[in-house]
Amino acid sequence: MSDFDLVLSGHLVLHSHEIEAGFVAVRDGKVALIGEGPAPAARARHDLGRALILPGAVDAQVHSLSQKGAEGFAASTAAAAAGGVTTIVDMPYDEGNLVCSAASVALKAAEAAAEARVDVALYGTIDPEEGPARIAEQAAAGVCGFKFSTFGTDPKRFPRIPPALLLACFAEVAKTGLAAGVHNEDDSFVRDAIRAVEAAGITDWRAHGLSRPPMTEILALLQIYETGAATGCPAHVVHCSLGRGYDIAKRYRDEGHFATIEACIHYLVLDEENDVARLGGKAKINPPIRPRAEVETLWRHVAAGNVSMVSTDHVSWSEDRKTNPEMLKNASGVPGLEVMVPLFVKGALERGIPLTWAARLLAENPARHFRLDHAKGGIKIGRDADLTVLEPVAKTYDAKASTVSVAGWSPYDGITLPWTVAGTWLRGQQVFDGSTVAAPGTGQFVRPLGPLGLRESLHG
């Protein structure tokens, strides 16, 4: 009898290469063997034929608790499991609990451990009134990074961090060995642009893009990278909708700075002139969805290796908060956990981009960025057996018909996915089988492995 607990065989996608007739063998929740050709015996064995076997995705940006009663970890991680995401990195801007102290980290970690169906890592942040005083204690409590914003959505839940305070925060984060991720929109520029749009009487779908023109992103992005360069802190832009931003990030890396940049899946799928015009508030996201030309520019940056990682920025706002005919009065953000992996695979294959980029940008790179790659991030011997299987069965996505979407709506409704998630395994345990997901409490709170030393670049 084999000493392997599980073997999956099919088209194996690693971050470095693909194995068309490959297999991965699992023992005690860890990847124990990777190979090509006939698969070994195991207590559970699945011959998946042409199906793709990818590493479980690490979603670098999820908002599970932004609206009380709307989602929560049990629901967000159900969508994650159904979407092939085995680790989520949750944002610190929770309604009623800004995650800005060791106590708030512990509270949220306990909630995740009790409710999550996949693994959960956590961002920390600061209360602007306290400054950077609690950064070190949050690192000790197990956060995997720190999140700040150059734009203030809410003075308490999602505050703007002004330049001098951001500099002080970066200096403290640098001591922890973690990275500082920042929402990149220039506050004063955005507010001036909003006033101009309102004065012009523009209230339809055009209003959002006009209220956040490209320069609002670029000015903030430059501030973030310069702050990183001044402090030696790894600087990360958590979402960029513009090709120019990826050019700038590369320049900072070429100068020797640690400058990473994230593309959310909506910037690789949706465009302003078609999708925002059609969906209105259901496509309102900060920064905004840009024209189709920018979408294709971002895919060229994916192919060139200039994108550090791809995430969802998932948030399941209730539908009433996304359907106001006055565009600017809608909440910003969209759900995406259930469809990120198949959407990326669809987009990559349509453009002739190797699927190794799916393994890198959805798993390997985010795990390394957040210092979780001792266990997470890719199909590698000794790592957790976090695996996603996509089968070549076309399905048209419909959030209302989904068994895991609590939002009941999606900007991706109506998109046909040629490859769909058929199964997801977390540490060798199946957490999604095509219809049902694992019970709450299956997931764990995961934290970086310490002590933290010098970083390696995500870009080679």
3D architecture notes:
- The chain is of the alpha/beta class and 460 residues long.
- The chain contains 13 helices and 19 strands.
- It has helices spanning 73-82, 102-115, 135-141, 163-176, 187-199, 206-211, 214-231, 243-254, 265-269, 272-279, 292-304, 340-350, 356-369; strands at 6-13, 18-27, 30-36, 44-55, 57-62, 85-90, 93-94, 97-98, 119-124, 145-149, 180-183, 235-237, 259-264, 309-311, 387-391, 395-396, 416-417, 420-426, 429-432.
- The model has no long low-confidence stretch (mean pLDDT 96).
- Helix 2 runs parallel beside helix 3 (135-141), helix 4 crosses helix 7 and helix 7 runs parallel beside helix 8 (243-254).
- The chain has an 8-stranded parallel β-sheet. Strands 3-2-1-4-15-18-19 form a 7-stranded mixed β-sheet.
- The protein is globular, with a radius of gyration of 21 Å.
- 32% of the residues lie in helices and 22% in strands.
